[in-house]
Amino acid sequence: MNHIQDRVTLNNGVTMPWVGLGVWKVEDGNEVISSVKAALKAGYRHIDTAAAYQNEEGVGQAIKESGIPREELFITTKLWNKNQGYESTLQAFEESRKKLGIEVIDLYLIHWPVKGKYVDTWKAMVKLYKEGLIRAIGLSNFQIHHIKDILDAADVVPAVNQIECHPMLTQKPLLQFCREHNIQPEAWSPLMQGNLDLPLLDELAGKYNKTKAQIVLRWDLQHEIVTIPKSVKEHRIIENADIFDFQLSAEDMDRLDALNQNKRFGPDPDNFNF
Where does the chain bind substrate (predicted)? Predict the structure, then answer.
């Protein structure tokens, strides 16, 4: 991991950039278009959106206007909860593909594990994957017991599980389970939705001459977790990519791990009103 465009190889051979731009809560139109363009200009090649974000069209427009060859880009989107189920998944996928304006989605995720639906949803995604319409399929916010249901029901192992993960929610058992099954972990809200006011982060930022955000994002990388920080400010987007010229010591990694409080800033997948 020496560069913003360095990639991890997923369990099916597809490669995915370690760092991407997340666009949750970024308004469709000019805001998301300018954010994505700023990221691509800064060297990002991985953009993460979702049907629920309601900005797939803007993401697609920014990709088109960037002039960057499609094969250099890695685009993720996600299926929203109300569209889960076999037939509705197939239809929702077509809608996302149309809004993004791209033929093949690089990574398609089930956004949340909707009880009673996610197994049939996965089977529909396997169909799309085998038809070549998606390069890799995966999960988001799935706990160990949810993943076991998927593994028991289908012949395609998820390539990715995108979860809330940061020093205050280290998710060690879930990460270990994913690695045992060759499922790549990916962190959403890696910057704790801006809750970075922690003395240890202040200390380490001074020690390494980096921002607190850069310390946390580097922690992700050294744990081999794909990370997708969100920002709409160009200088922050550039700053979030500047994490390849230093390395946290093993001791400092352990100290960051010790911040864990199992603290969520987003919903709990086991107690979420779907």
Answer: 111
Burial per residue of 142-158, b for 16 or more beta-carbon CB atoms within 10 angstroms, e otherwise: bbeebbeebeeeeebeb
Read off the pLDDT of residues 108-120 as tens digits, 9 standing for 90 and up: 999 999 999 999 9
Q: If you write DSSP's letter for every residue of 137-180 in order, what string do you get?
A: EEEES--HHHHHHHHHH-SS--SEEEEE-BTTB--HHHHHHHHH
- Write the DSSP string, 175-213: HHHHHHTT-EEEEESTTGGG----HHHHHHHHHHT--HH
Contacts of 257 (CB under 8 A, 6+ apart): 167, 170
Token pair 């920014």 is at which residue?
62
Binding-site annotation, residues for substrate: 111
What is the CB-side half-sphere exposure of residue 120 using CA atoms within 13 A?
Answer: 13
pLDDT in tens, 145-176: 999 999 999 999 999 999 999 999 999 999 99
**pTM of the entire structure?**
0.97
Q: Is 118 a catalytic residue?
A: no
Give me the catalytic one of 44, 53, 108, 118.
53
Does residue 1 carry a pLDDT above 90? no
Pick the CATH number of 13-197+226-235 from 3.30.565.10, 3.50.50.60, 3.20.20.100, 3.10.129.10: 3.20.20.100
Average predicted confidence (pLDDT) for the chain: 97
In single-letter form, the type of residue at position 170 comes to T
Please say whether the beta carbons of 109 and 140 come within 8 A: yes
